[in-house]
Amino acid sequence: MEKLLIDGGCVLEGEIRVSGAKNAVLPILAATLLADGPMQIANVPHLQDVTTTMELLGRMGVSLTLDEHMNIEVNSGPIKELFAPYEVVKTMRASILVLGPLLARFGEAEVSLPGGCAIGSRPVNLHLHGLEAMGAEIEVRGGYIHAKSKRLKGARLVMDNVTVTGTENLMMAATLAVGTTVIENAAREPEVTDLANCLIKMGAKIEGAGTGKITIQGVDRLHGCQYSVLTDRIETGTFLVATAITGGHVRLKNAQPKFLESILMKLKEAGAKVHCDENWVEIDMCRRRPKSINVCTAPYPAFPTDMQAQFTALNCIAEGSGTITESVFENRFMHIQEMQRMGAKIKVTGNTAITTGVDKLVAAPVMATDLRASASLILAGLIADGQTVVDRIYHIDRGYECIEEKLMQLGASIRRVPH
Ligand code: UD1
Is the link from the previous residue into 301 a cis peptide, with omega within 30 of 0? Predict the structure, then answer.
């Protein structure tokens, strides 16, 4: 199994380009199932989750062509199977995103129920309730969701919880339903809006994406289009924190700071100087040690759970004490034990981690348990004395494009070894 070796102590400096957003490209690839013509998707990040989605669509018979710039052309015309098998879904929970489109366009779908997850139980009950309210017959049998419907009917859906992929699945399903669907308490994440913008370009009638109330007027068909995926705000945030903890100075091109408000606010509180324009953001820590911050995760536009682990790494070496509260997932502190093994002072009470910053972490062999936890351990390695070995890095390849190349470009000492 591949590992990353990181020699701590480098100050990150320079300029890199942010990639397309993982959480936007996955629903957009699922949305190609709704189009009755070819779709061209640009700004696609080179990620394992994209490869997995392409494999999933390919198994269904969808034709996919990838050029050297990672532009993907997708044609769902030749589809022959409306099936998402367990062996694919278990490696990527976002596979559930094919359920809404398959059901809406073809009237049938069989999708493996995603299993447990390292960060919490992560049920899909709200996806299923919403589809049932739109007239689908759903049965869960043998670990699979069997869904059937004549044409879906528009409905008023009041979501119990804010769910990102749940909102996306139901919004996609509603585009081809008869009548109007209203999703109340919808997720407002920029990736939901990006999917809505893509669907609108395909001919869908959607209003209110980016707010808590999305209204979708069903249409008879959607056509193919060209679409360029939004840039990744979590990748941007991860590199900003990496820079802050090393005392560095970095400019991130192809970033969209308007979606980073809560993250930039916390970085400023930590003592960073931040400058930005429409499509770049620059952070300068002026070689200073960051100050501890307090955060509580919540749905957008509040502080994202996908940045919690990285800010925990920052607090580990920051001046003073801070609290990190995780309110979205029940078990998203797996990185903390690993950070403690590197000398971090963290006490966990319920869903809050109380940190007392130390001057330096000490390198240790550590193991990643999920995608963002892996990123936080790499960040911890950047500021540890000695060589940190991060194991199980397949998690990182699911969601960060060329992370070690980008860090090396900024002056980090990091390399991948086979085992
Ligand atoms: C998405 C993101 C993930 C991010 C998360 C929260 C993608 C591909 N993944 O995951 O990176 O960490 O949003 O911002 O976009 N819930 C239910 N029932 C449901 C669905 C969700 O109870 O049917 C609960 C979950 O257990 C969780 C909360 O709602 O506590 C939010 O989860 P959700 O927004 O659905 O996460 P994902 O869409 O899976």
Answer: yes
Query: What is the spatial distance between Cα 95 and Cα 113, in angstroms, rounded to a whole number?
Result: 10
Is residue 181 within 8 A of residue 157, CB to CB? The reply is yes
Nearest to 167 by CA among 27, 328, 311: 27
In the chain, count H helices and then E strands. Answer: 14, 26
Cα gap 176→404, rounded to integer Å: 42
Pocket test of ligand 1: the residue of 92, 93, 122 to mutate, having most ligand atoms within 8 Å of its CB, is 122
Please tell me what DSSP assigns to residue 117.
B
Q: Tell me the per-residue pLDDT of 203-240, one tens digit each, with 9 for 90 and over.
A: 999 999 999 999 999 999 999 999 999 999 999 999 99
For 126-178, list the strands marked E by DSSP. Answer: 137-141, 144-148, 156-158
Residues with CB under 6 Å of ligand 1 are 23, 26, 93-94, 120, 122-127, 161, 163-166, 191, 305-306, 328-329
Pairing state of beta strands 249-253 and 13-17?
parallel
Catalytic residue among 10, 117, 276, 286: 117
pLDDT of 158 higher than 90: yes
Instruction: Determine whether 117 is an active site residue.
Output: yes
Residue ID of nearest Cα to ligand 1 atom 25: 122
Confidence band for 116, pLDDT divided at 50, 70 and 90: low
Give start and end residues of each alpha helix (H) in 135-202: 164-175, 190-201
- Atom 8, ligand 1: residue with shortest CA distance: 23
Contacts of 347 (CB under 8 A, 6+ apart): 353, 354
Report the pLDDT averaged over residues 130-143: 96
């008869």: which residue's tokens?
Answer: 178
- The full DSSP string for 246-287 is HT-EEEEET--GGG-HHHHHHHHHTT-EEEEETTEEEEE-TT
pLDDT digits (tens, 9 = 90+) for 47-58: 999 999 999 999
Best residue for ligand 1 mutational test, from 126, 164, 303 (most atoms within 8 Å of Cβ): 164
Cα atoms found within 13 Å of the Cα of residue 45, Cβ hemisphere only:
28
